[in-house]
Write a structure and sequence with these properties.
By secondary structure, the chain is an all-alpha fold. It has 14 helices and no strands. It has helices at residues 9-21, 28-36, 43-64, 70-78, 80-112, 119-134, 138-163, 180-189, 196-200, 210-238, 250-255, 268-297, 307-318, 324-363.
Length: 364
């Protein structure tokens, strides 16, 4: 396989899109709908607006100080020890969130397609695939994402076209669901839905030029928000007022009902194939990023050696919850809520450090 030595703008865009957009295929819609009813379709947009100023500040400081990545910027503006301490907190929250996301997808695969299979076996297969993918390096991951993303986008566009005649737009009413106050609260709490882009900045040394990362990343974020909002709108319009709360996997539920003419039945297999491939790329990328983040915190240059032990630790922790409800409602939901204030506030802390650093530079 011929792979460029540095990631291109499009590869950064592909990685960003895969990293953020996959919440259209998991249990996130159902989790949000439990708190806001049928108004869940625009909650990710509110969440994005909550965290977007923080992302812009973070990217501005990253560019201003020519930092290599997240940990480097934290050390430059906060000092070595405080910077590493904050970086470790981000790593810990990101690691646990990714772990329970993996368990969530393992639950999906078991309940929807392999009911007789063991959770442990499915989880182990996912971890093994992630390990073998991650050790190939970020350039291979980016190249693979670039190849797979168009096929996945075409498949979900086809799904949207096929399901569109069955939607009932009136299902979006009442527009504020259980109440405007609940919608705003949930939007604020779920600000972390876009926060994984922060740890994606670890790949900046592997991008051809910093401006390519900023361009590909920002376009990827915008495109992802359009996709998420549109598909959540489809879910709201397709399911009735009560069923969305009791439908844990709306993406897969919809694929069961679409058909392409009288001769093409069971086309949900088509969506399953591309969904699984993109999910593998997403978790391979996340495993690689948290390994890189951990290596940068503890000055481990060959951080690829961390991939295997961290992946094994993910599986051990991910298998701890007894059932899917505990994983989703107790662990994943609470981690998303806890991650939000950290991701929203820490760029402002860095901004304060930036002003103090600039004032100190002027005084000397």
């Amino acid at each position: 396989m011929k792979v460029n030595t540095k990631l291109s703008t499009y590869e950064v865009f592909a990685l960003t899109n895969i990293l953020l957009t996959m919440i259209i295929t998991d249990t996130t819609p159902s989790i949000i709908a439990q708190n806001v009813g049928n108004a869940f379709w625009y909650v990710p947009l509110i969440s994005f607006l909550i965290i977007f100023p923080s992302l812009l500040i973070f990217l501005y400081l990253l560019n201003k100080h020519d930092a290599e990545h997240l940990v480097d910027l934290l050390e430059i503006l906060l000092g070595k020890f405080p910077g590493k301490l904050l970086a470790f907190l981000i790593f810990l929250l990101a690691f646990l969130t990714i772990t329970f996301e993996k368990r969530s997808y393992v639950n999906q695969v078991k309940f929807l397609y392999f009911e007789q299979s063991s959770i442990t076996i499915i989880f182990a297969l996912l971890i093994i695939a992630c390990i073998f993918g991650a050790i190939r390096g970020i350039k291979v991951i980016g190249y693979t994402a670039k190849i797979l993303l168009p096929y996945f986008i075409i498949s979900i566009i086809l799904l949207a076209v096929l399901i569109f005649p069955s939607i009932v737009p009136d299902h979006i009413y009442p527009i504020f669901g259980y109440g405007l106050r609940d919608v705003i609260k949930e939007g604020i709490l779920k600000g972390s839905l876009s926060s994984s882009f922060v740890i994606l900045t670890m790949i900046m040394p592997a991008v051809r030029e910093p401006k390519r990362f900023y361009k590909g990343g920002l376009i990827g974020i915008g495109f992802s928000m359009i996709q998420i909002t549109f598909f959540y709108f489809l879910y709201t319009s397709y399911f009735d007022y009560h069923s969305i709360v009791t439908t844990p996997f709306p993406f897969h539920e919809i694929t069961q009902y679409v058909k392409l003419g009288d001769f093409f039945t069971n086309i949900e297999t088509l969506f399953l194939v591309f969904w699984l491939l993109v999910i593998f790329i997403r978790f391979i990328l996340l495993l690689y990023l948290v390994s890189w983040l951990f290596g940068a915190i503890f000055n481990i240059d060959n951080f690829e050696l961390l991939i295997l032990p961290l992946a094994f630790l993910m599986m051990v922790i991910g298998l701890m919850p007894d059932n899917a409800t505990t994983t989703e409602i107790v662990y994943r939901n609470q981690l998303l809520n806890l991650l939000t204030p950290v991701m929203v506030i820490f760029p402002y802390i860095l901004l304060v450090g930036h002003f103090f650093k600039r004032r100190k530079g002027r005084s000397t």
